[in-house]
Write a structure and sequence with these properties.
Aminopeptidase; 19 strands; alpha+beta; Alpha-Beta Plaits; single chain
Length: 432
C-alpha cells in the first residue's frame, strides 16, 4: 500500500457512502419514467446524469473535462502528473424503463473512491480519472447496423464514422449523427485524427458494475472479480423458408415446414451447448426471437416461413467460431431433409475480452486483505471494458451482487455490497 493505512482507507470509503446514496437518488429521481429510469443516449435525461456527476466532481475540487462526443472526465491529480494514470469508468445511459444501477454504479463508485482519497488526505501517486461514458446501451434505443458502446469507441478512435448514419433511432427515425449533433457534440470528429484516449497515457482501465445475472446472488457472494467478457457470435435476422400448405391435406413427407426445420436446428444447437458445458467449456446460447408472420400464419396452415435470432456467447473465440460453423452445417443438412432453405443473414463475431491477469491477481489479493467475500466470474454481458481491452488498455472489472437481474426497474443492489466493491476499487487505486 501507499502511506494510506488500510483502516483509514476503509473508514474514508464508508464515510463517503452518503455521497453515493445522494447521487443515486438524485439521478434516479430526475431520470425516472413511469416504470423505471430512462436515460436515452444523447437525450436530456442522459445529460442530467452527466450534469449531476459534474457538480459532485466540482464539489470535490476535481478537474473536469469533456470530449467532443459528450463523455465526462473527473480527475484527482496525482503527485507525479507525468506518469500514466488510472482510468475508472462506466456508462451513464440506461435501457428504456431500466434500473438505476446498471452503468451508473461504476461512475458513482469511481467518484466515491476519489472522495474517500480526498477525505483520507492521500494524494495518489498518479492521476486518477473517472469517466462517465455516453451511449453504451445504444442497441436498446437504435436499430440499424452498429456495434453499440458509442461513447467509449468514439473516445478510443475505434468507432467507424459510418455507424453514425447506419444507427437509426427507433422512435424518431433519425440517425445517431443527428441526435449527437442536436445534443451539442461534434460527430464530424468520429474516426478522425488522434484518439482522445490512448493506452500509453494510462496504467489501465477499471470498471465496477452490477452483476447482471444471478450467480453472486445465488452463491451469497457480494463481490466478483471478472475473468473475461464473453464474446458473441450473432445472427440477428435468421429465416427458414418453406412452403405454406394445408395443415390437414398435406402429409408430413410432402411438407416443407419452416417451423419444424427451425425447431430441429435450435434443438441440435442446444444439445451441442450441453456437450460443450459437460466437457468444461464456457458457452451460453439463446434464441431470443422465434416467430412466424402474423399477416399470413393460421391455425390450419403449414408455416412457410419462420424467423429467429441466434446469440452465442463464450470466453473462447474458438468456441464461438465452432458454434457458428456448426449452425451453418446443421442448416444445410436439415434444409436438405426437410425441403426448406435457411438464411442466417450476417453472422457477426465479437471477440471475447480477457481481463488483465495482473490486475485480476491484485484485485483478488485486495479482496483477501480487505476480508471481502469474493469469487472469480465471467461476464456474459458486454461492457465498455471490452472496448478498452481491445484498444490495448490493461482492463479489469469488479462485479457487485445485484438481485432480480438487470435491464429492468427491479435491480436490487444493496448499498452495503456497493460499499464493499468501492472499498476494493479504492484499494486498487491506492496501490503504488
Amino acid at each position: 500500500m501507499t502511506n494510506l493505512s488500510l483502516s483509514l482507507l476503509t473508514d474514508a470509503v464508508d464515510a463517503s457512502m452518503p455521497l453515493a446514496a445522494k447521487l443515486f437518488d438524485e439521478i434516479g429521481r430526475k431520470t425516472a419514467d413511469t416504470a423505471g429510469v430512462s436515460r436515452e443516449p444523447y437525450s436530456p435525461a442522459e445529460q442530467i446524469a452527466v450534469d449531476v456527476l459534474t457538480e459532485a466532481a466540482r464539489s470535490l475540487e476535481l478537474e473536469i473535462a469533456a470530449d467532443s462526443f459528450g463523455n465526462g472526465y473527473f480527475t484527482l491529480p496525482g503527485s507525479d502528473r507525468g506518469v500514466p494514470g488510472w482510468l475508472v469508468g462506466s456508462h451513464v445511459d440506461s435501457v428504456p424503463s431500466g434500473g438505476n444501477y446498471d452503468g451508473l454504479a461504476g461512475v458513482i463508485a469511481g467518484i466515491t473512491a476519489l472522495a474517500a482519497l480526498r477525505r483520507a488526505g492521500s494524494a495518489p501517486a498518479c492521476d486518477i480519472t473517472v469517466m462517465g461514458i455516453r451511449a453504451e446501451e445504444l442497441s436498446s434505443w437504435y436499430g440499424g447496423h452498429h456495434g453499440g458502446h458509442i461513447g467509449s469507441r468514439a473516445a478510443l478512435g475505434s468507432l467507424p464514422a459510418a455507424e453514425l448514419d447506419s444507427a437509426v433511432n427507433s422512435r424518431s427515425g433519425r440517425a445517431l449523427r443527428e441526435h449527437m449533433r442536436a445534443a451539442g457534440f461534434d460527430p464530424e470528429l468520429v474516426g478522425k485524427g488522434v484518439p482522445y484516449l490512448s493506452p500509453d497515457k494510462f496504467r489501465g482501465y477499471l470498471e465496477l458494475h452490477i452483476e447482471q445475472g444471478p450467480v453472486l446472488e445465488n452463491r451469497e457472494v457480494p463481490v466478483g472479480v471478472v475473468t473475461a467478457i464473453r464474446g458473441a457470435a450473432r445472427a440477428r435476422s435468421c429465416r427458414c423458408l418453406g412452403t405454406y400448405t394445408h395443415s390437414g391435406a398435406v402429409p408430413h413427407e410432402y411438407r416443407s415446414d419452416a417451423v419444424m426445420a427451425a425447431v430441429e436446428l435450435v434443438r441440435e444447437l442446444d444439445l451441442e451447448w450441453e456437450r460443450v458445458r459437460a466437457a468444461g467449456g464456457d458457452l451460453v446460447f439463446t434464441v431470443g426471437q422465434f416467430f412466424t408472420d402474423s399477416r399470413v400464419h393460421a391455425l390450419t396452415k403449414v408455416p412457410g416461413e419462420a424467423n429467429f435470432s441466434l446469440d452465442i456467447r463464450s470466453q473462447s473465440e474458438a468456441t464461438l467460431k465452432d458454434m457458428a460453423a456448426l449452425a451453418e452445417r446443421l442448416a444445410r443438412d436439415i434444409a436438405a431433409r426437410r425441403r426448406v432453405r435457411f438464411d442466417f443473414g450476417y453472422f457477426s463475431l465479437q471477440s471475447p475480452a480477457v481481463m488483465d491477469a495482473g490486475f485480476r491477481s491484485q484485485l483478488i489479493d485486495g479482496a483477501c486483505v480487505l476480508e471481502i467475500p469474493h469469487m472469480e466470474i465471467p461476464s456474459g454481458a458486454g461492457h465498455d471494458a471490452q472496448d478498452f481491452a481491445h484498444a490495448g488498455f490493461p482492463a479489469a472489472m469488479i462485479f457487485v451482487r445485484n438481485a432480480h437481474g438487470s435491464h429492468n426497474p427491479d435491480e436490487a443492489m444493496d448499498i452495503a455490497d456497493f460499499a464493499l466493491g468501492t472499498r476494493l476499487l479504492a484499494w486498487m487505486l491506492a496501490q503504488n
